[in-house]
Amino acid sequence: MTLLLGVDTGGTFTDAVLIRDETEVVSSAKALTTRHDLAIGIGEAVRAVLVASGENAGDVAMASLSTTLATNALVEGQGGRIGLIYIGFRARDLDVHGLSEVLRGDPVLICEGGHNHAGGEAAPLDEKAIADFLELHGKGVSSFAVAAQFATRNPAHELRAAEMIAAATGRPVSASHQLSSRLNGPKRAVTAVLNARLIGMIERLIGRAEDILKQTGISAPMMVVRGDGALISAAQARERPIETILSGPAASIVGARWLTGAENALVSDIGGTTTDIAVLRDGLPAIDPAGARVGPYRTMVEAVAMRTTGLGGDSEVHIVAEGLKGGVHLGPGRVVPVSLLAGEAPGIVHAALDAQLRSTVPAEHDGRFLRAVAGQHAEGLGARETALLERIGTAVHPAGDILRARLEHGALKRLVERGLVQICAVTASDASHIVGTLDAWDADAARKALMLMSRRRTGSGNVLARGAEALARMIIDQLTHQTSVALLKSALAEEGEGFGPAPEDLAEHVLMQRGLSGHRGLLRIDTGLNLPVVGLGASAHAYYPAVGERLGTRMILPGHGGVANAIGAVAGQITMRQSGTVTSPGEGRFRIHSAGAPKDFTDQETALSALETLLRSETETRARLAGAVDIQMRVSRDIRSADVEARSVFVEATVTVEATGRPRVASG
Q1: How far apart are CA 289 and CA 273, in angstroms?
Q2: Neighbouring C-beta atoms of residue 383, cutoff 10 Å
């Protein structure tokens, strides 16, 4: 008998599941995710699932972790302060390619260096500029990213810069050529920046998770789910945390397939922070050929083709005051539900809500609270952010008691982005307590908070809603609408034949929306989904039946769907892929480019075979380091040539090697 433990840390809940012999769910459990120390929630979930199963912790043969931490951090704009060393590029690239937006004011050095397409040095590396930059910023950032022009053709300058960073600062370094073998330097730079920003968060998560497993009596090796649903070792996840973006969603796809056996379906997983949607075709999730996209960021990380939307049970409810009718909109940011906060600080929350209800005039910050997140690094803060953080201290505060000037709103936004402060406000989870589909936290606090929000005025001057119940129904209806639109966007994006306008426009087009309502006038309009939806997530049973009805499709809500991520965490295999390139810089010369220095050969087949041998060795080594056994190798070649004067001329070739194996489990 083999006992496997899967754990998933989501934005709101941490799930744990025990699976026997890879075929049977023994037990599952949930605990609240404790953002200030994720190990607390992990420990509670693991202990609960062991108690529920009656199994011995020492009998667990493998533990695997999937997490939405990296995905949520990118969607919410969180992460550590980093420094970027950008070698051989121009300053205008920062704006043209979106790097300025990704950096968010973090320090950047643009210096001479880099290589050309053939791997030759385009300019000497400006080591003095790098040394000066490290002297100035080395102590003010948590990690560094390095991206050099054509580093995938020759990584020498990235490697030298990384060596200088390690020697001068000891900080972690993300080199772009180690994250992707493809061309497009600015896009690799974005990936390296995001990887650097996530290093501290993922390091703390994995380290604390390993600690709590040992304390619980589990000595089995720990794996982590990658964004394509494959498993990697904890050590590899520490080095490349960017590969764990879409880890949780990818695990949910693997879990959905394991639970339902579905061949062709949309899979929609609603969590506390995001809704993640992917398409299953012939039982397999598609891999995004352009690289994983999360929120506004397109990376070069290989991951499941998935559309992630900032819409979850804990998405903040915003009032839409424009127009005569007004309304609400959810997300994209996550906040702590008022009903949840009231369970942690009941005296403060209820006293503030009661005082606000006694006021005859609604105030801007009614029903909103602030609290600091303990244990986070606060390096590189400005004076205004530092003062605001000190004012918040360690207690929970009504937002109106802390924010004294309009200028402080920007400072609060930056503290939230850094993960140093949490906002508590009205969410769909609060509304669910009022309509009776959720009974986990303080429903009385939720009712008071929604009553306060319902008193706000729309553009017509009328109140937003007639009481808490009416507003709660309005919020749930809006969640149904936004979820339906998100599913339509994903379906339209995956249609083989396009319809002209972008999926984002078509999904919300008046004809589409009227068709969902079954318009019958001079025109008959019918629209909807033509394949079933597998609904996953703890709140799917509460929210998704209405979504299926709205879209006119079958909604599959499997048992254990609330812990599909945790199931997927142990149902995957270890897969490693490595790619390299062969170019022809001159007649009779064939140059291979991989992670090391370029090498020249005089024969095309010799060069291809040498690259394949090198990639086989590297890929198999990475797979074994990840804990794979029974490894199977697969090699593909993509050779591009051109017809010149009636003969075929070699242009370039890409060799890809894939190693797949089962994860090694501890012997009993």
Answers
A1: 25
A2: 8
| Count of C-beta atoms within a 10 Å radius of residue 500 | 6
Q: What are phi and psi of 496, to 5 degrees?
A: -65, -35
Q: Residue 551 half-sphere exposure, CB side, CA atoms within 13 Å?
A: 26
Q: How many helices (H) and strands (E) does the chain have?
A: 22, 29
For residues 120 and 595, what is the distance between their CA atoms, to the nearest angstrom?
15
Q: Any idea what the Cα angle at residue 627 is, between residues 624 and 632, rounded to 5°?
A: 55
Structure-token pair, residue 339: 């009903």
State which H helix or E strand residue 609 sits in. Answer: helix 604-625
**Rounded Cα gap, residues 471 and 461, in angstroms:** 17
Q: What is the DSSP string of 16-66?
A: EEEEETTTEEEEEEEEE--TT-HHHHHHHHHHHHHHHHT--GGGEEEEEEE
Do residues 274 and 536 lie in contact, with contact meaning Cβ atoms separated by under 8 Å? no
Half-sphere exposure of 591 (CA within 13 A, CB side): 17
Mean pLDDT of the chain: 89
| 168 contact partners, CB below 8 Å, separation of at least 6 | 131, 134, 135, 138
H helices within 406-502, ranges in order? 407-417, 428-435, 443-454, 468-494
pLDDT at 570: 87
Q: Are 87 and 159 in contact (CB under 8 A)?
A: no
Strand partners, 555: 533
pLDDT-derived band of residue 541, with 50, 70 and 90 as boundaries?
A: very high
Percent of the chain with pLDDT over 70: 97
Burial annotation 183-194 (CB, 10 A radius, 16+ → b, else e) = eebbbbbbbbbb
Give residue 225's identity as a one-letter amino acid code: V
Are 346 and 481 in contact, with CB atoms under 8 Å apart?
no
Closest CA to 79 of 392, 295, 383: 295
CA distance to 367, 432, 476, 657, per residue, from 443 (Å): 14, 9, 16, 54
How many residues can be counted in the chain? 668
Distance between CA 505 and CA 509 in Å, rounded? 6
- Whole-number pLDDT of residue 377: 66
CA distance 94 to 193: 12
For helices 346-358 and 443-454, the axis angle rounded to 10 degrees is: 30
User: What single DSSP character describes residue 511?
Assistant: H
CA gap 39, 452 in Å, rounded: 35
Reply yes or no on whether the pLDDT at 667 is more than 90: no
Q: How many CB atoms lie within 10 A of CB 58?
A: 13
Q: Please, which residues have CB within 8 angstroms of residue 390's CB and are 6 or more apart in sequence?
A: none
- Distances in Å between the Cα of 369 and the Cα atoms of 129, 328, 342, 398, 449 are 45, 20, 10, 4, 11
Cα-Cα end-to-end distance for the chain: 9
The count of other CB atoms within 10 Å of the CB of residue 603 is 12
Res 309 pLDDT > 60 = yes
Strand blocks (E) in 264-314: 265-270, 275-281, 284-285, 293-294, 297-298, 306-309
Q: Sheet containing 369-372: which strands, arranged edge to edge? A: 336-337, 421-425, 369-372, 397-398
Task: Give the H or E element holding residue 352.
Answer: helix 346-358
Interatomic CA distance for residues 604 and 330, integer angstroms: 57
CA distance 162 to 225: 27
What value does the mean pLDDT take over residues 466-471?
Answer: 96
pLDDT at 668 over 60: no
